[in-house]
Amino acid sequence: MAFKTIIEPFRIKSVEQIKMTTEQQRRRMIEAAGYNIFELRSEDVIIDLLTDSGTGAMSSNQWGGIMRGDESYAGSPSFFHFRDSVTDIMGFEHLIPTHQGRAAERILFSVMCTPGDVVPNNSHFDTTRANCEFTGAMALDLPSPELANMGSDYPFKGDMDVDGLKAAFAEHGAQRIPLVMLTVTNNSGGGQPVSMANVRAVAEVCRANGTPLYLDACRITENAYLIKQREPEFATTTVRRIVREMCDLADGCTMSAKKDAIVNIGGFLATRDPEVAQKQRELLILTEGFVTYGGLAGRDLEALAIGMQEAVDEDYLNYRIASTRYLGQHLRDAGIPIMWPPGGHAIYLDARGFAPHIEPTRFPGVSIAAATYIAGGVRACEIGSLMFGHRDEETGEEVAGPRELVRLAIPRRTYTQSHIEYVVEVVTQVFEERERLPGYRIVEQPPFLRHFSARLAQIA
Ligand code: F0G
Questions:
Q1: Atom 19 (ligand 1): residue with closest C-alpha?
Q2: Where are the domains of the chain?
Q3: For residues 341 and 13, what is the distance between their CA atoms, to the nearest angstrom?
Q4: How far apart are CA 247 and CA 98, in angstroms?
Q5: Cα-atom radius of gyration of the chain, to the nearest Å?
Q6: What average pLDDT is seen over the chain?
Q7: Which residue puts its alpha carbon closest to atom 15 of ligand 1?
Q8: How many Å lie between the centroid of ligand 1 and the Cα of residue 216?
Q9: Minimal CB count within 10 Å: which of 56, 239, 414, 431?
């Protein structure tokens, strides 16, 4: 008999105390932080949904691996354990450990790109875009047109626009496109999954042009589980096989293991091409470390090797995806506009729909994130005009970004059902009182990546 409650498929062996705070204290702390959630101390946060990256809870097996980690400079057994585990799941031959995802990106683009090149992606994550552009190449986003329709039921809004990709090859020519990337799931695109049909179609365009396809694979096992749930052809296929099929269609990947591989630090770069791998290793040694440890300790490689296997466990993924969906479903039932359907790692609030009385240049997402913190100590992240807008240097006017979202990212295996129910209550309360949400203005900002350190004030 199947019961309807999907339980956390783990028991808790060690706990971390949460410091409880009052609304009055939090009002003071967010004001002192210049209404910027990055400036808060994490111990002043009750439920931290800032990111799912590096914030997951490792298993007792992973902690056991931490003790077994071998710290030899060269040829450590922990490297071979890491390599065999990743190759078992993904099938790529050449594996290069890095300290996190962006180090893999830097090496990949440094080896493959030259100034004037174009790198298409369904949506570049911000570090991916920055590393690509740092080589002088152009980072081209080609999201599915379905992504614009936030509330629709379309199951694979993370897809790449295949016609857009063909048009990019026609416009720039294959010689100017050294690689194509596909980010699974599409984090900058509302955490939405990419369908296998889309991976196949993108791979076919790449093959026709003789261009390698790389996956940005941080959340590939969550993407694979969503393929199993939403793409009828895969309803009875194992997640392992789905992940392998996605990888078989690609020539390599970058990976931030801080996401699906449930480690606190770690990543890798994978490729099938021995010549490319050789060049990548040369760069690795220059800045990350020797080829059998990259930027990691042996113990980190052990935890990563074990985490990769846990990440394809379907009982775990069933719980993981259900818990994200639970949050999304309940917020939607309360009338709150969100990116629909829920993806794997986060729920994205539509800040424009939530607080339509606040103009984008007055930061509705900042207002919602500040109110959510004040109401219940829940830390969410604005992905809107503070992050992607800018101030026009000539006029001094704010220029809005392309969208106004607030991300509630769910760390893996860290919070329980009652934590999630609490988040639903907090966000719902903020929504019920949304007419009182103030707009904000920036009083201090750095020239780059302003969202990390800008200070804001409420507009009366
Ligand atoms: N690619 C994607 C799709 C990501 O989401 C991230 C990180 C990276 C690459 C870079 O990996 O942080 O290990 O260097 N995303 C985090 C987030 C920071 O909060 O979404 P990294």
A1: 51
A2: 23-52+313-459, 60-310
A3: 33
A4: 19
A5: 22
A6: 96
A7: 53
A8: 9
A9: 414
Closest ligand 1 atom to Cα of 185: 3
Which of the listed CATH numbers 3.40.50.800, 3.90.1150.10, 2.40.50.140, 3.40.50.300 matches domain 23-52+313-459? 3.90.1150.10
The CB of 214 under 6 Å from ligand 1? The reply is no
Q: Which residues contact 334 (CB under 8 A, 6 or more apart)?
A: 424, 427, 428, 431
β-pairing verdict for 440-444 and 455-458: antiparallel
Single out the residue of 17, 414, 58 nearest to residue 266, CA to CA.
58
Q: Which fold has domain 60-310?
A: Aspartate Aminotransferase; domain 2 (3.40.640)
- Mapped onto helix, strand or coil, the DSSP state of residue 80 is helix
Q: Rounded distance, CA 10 to CA 57, Å?
A: 11
Q: How far is the CA of 177 from the centre of ligand 1 (A)?
A: 23
Distance of CA 6 to the CA centre of its chain: 24
Mean pLDDT by 10 residues, the chain (460 residues): 88 96 98 97 98 98 98 98 98 97 97 98 94 96 95 97 98 98 94 97 98 98 98 98 98 98 98 96 95 97 98 98 97 98 97 97 98 98 93 92 94 97 98 98 90 94
State the Cα–Cα distance between residues 143 and 161, nearest whole angstrom: 5
Residues 6+ apart with CB under 8 A from 231: 155, 156, 195, 196, 197
Pick from 263, 196, 257: nearest CA to 226: 196
Note whether 121 and 142 are within 8 A (CB).
yes
Degrees, nearest 5: CA angle 330-222-389: 70
CA dihedral sign of residues 352, 412, 227, 178: positive
Pocket of ligand 1 contains residue 379 by CB under 6 Å? no
